[in-house]
Design a protein that fits this description.
This protein has 269 residues and is of the alpha+beta class. The protein is built from seven helices and ten strands. 24% of the residues lie in helices and 21% in strands. Mean pLDDT is 91; it is low at 216-221.
């Protein structure tokens, strides 16, 4: 599933390629993804220029004078910018065609993504999101303060988008490994000192992943079609029964909240 680094990588690519471009045509190749795609988009966005491309959590926000296009990549989605003459690929579901001959296409094989629109630049999906992990509000005090009396496991806690956005499964596993914290520990039982270290580890892991262009495991690639290279540096995720790079113990896999968790039972306490 595309997580914060993959969406941030996509956002940065789109900013370079579509800001100030004018929409010539909007094409809906299906009526719905996770939710119905607004049928008014071909009319609403005609002749509209892209003012900005932003990200909030895992949502891409493409802003026009008429409002804000909201795109979520779901479990398998990716966005590409190509010449409008390039043939469609299977699972291309939505397209913005620009007057410069380029087009932005959303490809989503599993169709868990979303294309939505807000005329006032707000949306209920964005209202209750937590802080951004790479911004100043996510400081050494934040996680510890939010963890008071929390009985859920710490991995689920840092993946809760109402607490902090964008720390998906891959990066939660990697951050907890770097911080030396067992993912089975109750969030409320972790000390302030360890939360301070974990906060910095989350920032470091996400920053490294963004620099690497995200993580390509199956479907994700950036707007120019390149894969993300962070997968080459993963310490625990997807490495069940392989040796820990620090202590040579075997990496373990357990299921937490219906997701695979990878960790080192020796290094993470």
């Amino acid at each position: 599933m595309p997580e914060l680094p993959e969406v941030e990588t996509t956002k940065r690519g789109l900013k370079l390629l579509i800001v100030s471009q004018v929409v010539n045509q909007v094409v809906l190749y299906r009526d719905n993804l996770r939710w119905e795609i607004p049928k008014h988009l071909p009319t609403t966005l005609a002749n509209q220029a892209v003012n900005a491309v932003e990200r909030r959590g895992k949502y891409l926000l493409i802003k026009f004078n008429a409002g804000m296009l909201i795109i979520h990549l779901g479990m398998s989605g990716s966005v590409k910018v190509v010449d409008s003459t390039v043939p469609l690929k299977k699972h291309d579901h939505f397209e913005l065609v620009f007057t410069n001959g380029k087009c932005m296409r959303l490809n989503d094989p599993r169709r868990f993504g979303a294309v939505l629109f807000s005329m006032d630049n707000t949306h209920s999906l964005l209202d209750n999101l937590g802080v951004e992990p790479l911004e100043v509000l996510f400081d050494e005090q934040y996680l510890y303060g939010k963890s008071h009396k929390k009985q859920q496991n710490i991995k689920a806690f840092i993946m809760d988008s109402k607490v902090v956005v964008g720390v998906g499964n891959i990066y939660a596993c990697e951050s907890l490994y770097k911080a030396g914290i067992n993912p089975k520990r109750q969030a409320g039982s972790v000390s302030k000192k360890r939360y301070t270290h974990l906060t910095q580890c989350i920032k470091d892991i996400l920053t490294q992943a963004i620099k690497a262009g995200g993580t390509t495991l199956q479907d994700f690639s950036s707007v120019d079609g390149k894969p993300g290279y962070f997968a080459q540096t993963l310490s625990v995720y997807g490495r069940e029964n392989e040796n820990c790079t620090q202590c040579r113990s075997k990496i373990a896999r357990i299921i937490q909240n219906q997701r695979s968790t990878f960790y080192c039972p020796s290094c993470q306490t």
